[in-house]
Specification:
Order of helices and strands: HEEHEEEH
Pfam families: Robl_LC7 (PF03259)
Protein name: Roadblock/LAMTOR2 domain-containing protein
Oligomer: single chain
Number of domains: 1
Strand content: 25-35%
Organism: Phytohabitans rumicis
InterPro entries: Roadblock/LAMTOR2_dom
């Protein structure tokens, strides 16, 4: 994980998402390869596991879009008995994964997360490119 100060703007976005959408437990930002970049989880699932699940969700969504000729992956949501797992594309190389509880306002999450991903694209572009060269 990189220095928190270097990514303060991204952390501010994740915090704002948590505060503005009822039921958001936390978020993970990962590369499409499953590499954990940032997270604001304070308990529960391991952030590296969430990053890997986000990449897996992206892979399935990408292949579905290709097979159906519907274009590039944008987002996917899984609703389980006790909560939600939503993954949003942040440009071409990163993902925003959001964990939500049973009471998550999913419609509000979709509206807010789409705006957040647009703002995150510029913030994360340099870091994701550097990670891909490692």
């Amino acid at each position: 994980m990189q220095d928190r100060e270097a990514y303060q703007a991204a952390y501010v976005e994740m915090d704002a998402l948590k505060r503005s959408v009822s039921g958001v437990v936390g978020s993970v930002i990962a590369g499409v390869d499953g590499l954990l970049l940032l997270h604001d989880l304070t308990g529960g699932p391991e952030p590296h596991d969430i990053a890997a699940l986000a990449a897996t969700t992206f892979g399935l969504g990408r292949q579905t879009g290709l097979a159906l000729r519907q274009g590039a992956f944008r987002e996917s949501t899984i609703r389980s008995h006790k909560g939600y797992f939503s993954v949003y594309a942040v440009g071409d190389a990163a993902l925003l994964a959001v964990l939500g509880g049973e009471g998550l306002n999913i419609a509000r999450l979709h509206l807010e997360a789409r705006l957040v991903t647009e703002r995150l694209i510029g913030m994360l572009d340099v870091h994701v490119q550097a990670q891909s060269r490692l």
